[in-house]
Design brief:
alpha+beta, 5-stranded mixed beta sheet, Butyryl-CoA Dehydrogenase, subunit A, domain 3
Length: about 450
């Protein structure tokens, strides 16, 4: 941290001296120049001090803009700082004339939009990385209302993916002795199971059967990028209450045999799509194996945030081939407020909901052929196996609204991770435990009748 402080102070000094130099050369002040013109000046700048000063000025002005001003600047990035098409034409002609490595490099350089170099130079400013991450967050927020901004986002994502690659990230354990400003960010950014207050946070960090880990970037030393909360247990839980209730079983870490990843949260909206969550889990698994050799099971207890919306779509489709008339009758109970606390409603929806959930995970696909559920795409893409579906595993209002209370366990079996990942990436193969497959109606119909206990999974 001391090194970062020194580097930041150095950049600040360079920026101050560069500002004085620029004002002296221009015989005026940078305040008299428009934001887009400052960007043009930064792109043509050759001096390091002047470049740092310009970058600081541009980002400072960006932060002071209102929403309309920020939208206007993002549109300028799209329209004014895109590719230089005349340069591309010349590079293409040179490549057609002489197809060698040098002309390929020249073509590659010519095809790069000018805003990519502009973003690189803006990163020279003190706290430039933080400002650019926040700028992309605003870009993502406004993207839907301004056609064409996706091309600007592609340039941001390309550069941020290299600046935040795994080699630059530092894994740190978060515990009750972690500085309060970082702990406050953990509370604020918890996206799966809300942390109610500081006492709630203490109960997730201080006990011996709890762990929390986060990735940090050297240029954002006090800002966790993504964090995972872990519970150490003797068995695989079927409901979040088993992990978060005040009267839960407290397991001494030395006696635990399973590590349960029950919450993974991203802290920076501007880093959406920059994939480091998979690296986080794998690094945490490795660290836990070193610390706790008795722990051999690494399993998630995950929400199913897309299930309710998918099922609503099927119920609204009169010609749905997924729902039977009996399903429609039983699932009408879902429309009643508080159904999850009504034993009759719970019993009515249990069997159809689990069968449809199995279809949702194992058969339903997006237009691109991927699993519909975003959490499933993440864990299956990391090489996990869909281990179990848990009926009413989470009775919170959010979980009932998004997934009808359903939760899923994904199992990370170390010997199978790479094989599972390759099968999912290459063929879209979903690796699931037999208990999950047996919930499919076609699987049940194809085998002899018997007392199938899988329907009792996560029994409320």
């Amino acid at each position: 941290m001391a090194g970062n402080s020194f580097f930041g102070d150095l950049l600040q000094t360079i920026a101050d001296r560069g500002r004085l130099l620029l004002d002296r050369v221009r015989g005026g002040s940078m305040e008299d120049i428009g934001l887009a013109e400052l960007c043009e000046t930064l792109l043509s700048s050759r001096g390091e001090a002047s470049g740092v000063a310009l970058a600081r000025e541009i980002l400072g002005r960006w932060r002071s803009l209102d929403e309309a001003g920020r939208r206007a600047f993002l549109i300028e990035l799209m329209e004014r700082f895109g590719p230089d098409y005349a340069r591309i034409d010349r590079a293409v002609a040179a490549y057609e004339k002489n197809r060698d490595a040098r002309s390929v490099v020249a073509l590659h350089e010519a095809a790069e939009p000018r805003r990519q170099e502009l973003i690189r130079r803006l990163n020279l400013a003190p706290n430039g990385v933080r400002s650019l991450v926040r700028m992309r967050a605003e870009l993502l927020r406004q993207q839907g209302s301004v056609p064409g901004l996706d091309v600007v986002d592609a340039d941001f994502e390309h550069l941020l993916a290299s600046w935040f690659n795994r080699g630059f990230l530092v894994l740190r354990r978060i515990d009750w002795s972690t500085p309060a400003d970082i702990l406050e960010k953990i509370i604020r950014h918890e996206a799966v199971h809300e942390i109610g207050d500081w006492d709630d946070l203490r109960d997730r960090l201080q006990p011996g059967d709890r762990r929390c880990f986060a990735f940090f970037h050297p240029r954002l030393v006090d800002d966790p990028l993504i964090f995972v909360e872990v519970a150490l247990t003797r068995s695989i839980p079927a409901a979040i209450g088993e992990l978060l209730s005040e009267d839960r079983e407290r397991v001494p870490a030395a006696e635990a045999s399973a590590a349960i990843f029950y919450s993974i949260s991203n802290c920076e909206a501007g880093l959406r799509g920059i994939s480091f969550g998979s690296f986080l889990l794998k690094q945490v698994i490795e660290d836990l194996r070193q610390e706790l050799p008795r722990v051999t099971e690494f399993v998630t207890l995950s929400p199913v945030p897309g299930f309710a919306a998918w099922l609503a779509g099927e119920r609204a489709e009169a010609a749905s081939t997924v729902l039977t008339p009996e399903d429609r009758t039983a699932l009408a109970a879902l429309d009643r407020e508080g159904w999850a606390l009504d034993p009759a409603a719970v019993e009515a929806v249990r069997e159809p909901l689990l069968a449809l959930a199995a279809h949702y995970f194992l058969r339903a696909r997006t237009a691109s052929g991927r699993p519909v559920d975003p959490v499933a795409r993440f864990h299956l893409g990391n090489g996990a196996r869909l281990e179990r579906l848990n009926f009413l595993g989470d009775l919170s209002e959010k979980a009932i609204r998004q997934g009808h209370g359903l939760m899923a366990n994904y199992r990370y079996k170390l010997d199978d991770i790479e094989k599972n990942h390759e099968g999912f990436a290459a063929q879209g193969e979903i690796v699931a435990a037999p208990a999950v497959k047996r919930l499919l109606r076609e699987e049940r119909a194809a085998r002899p009748a018997r007392n199938d206990q899988t329907l009792a999974i996560g029994k409320a």
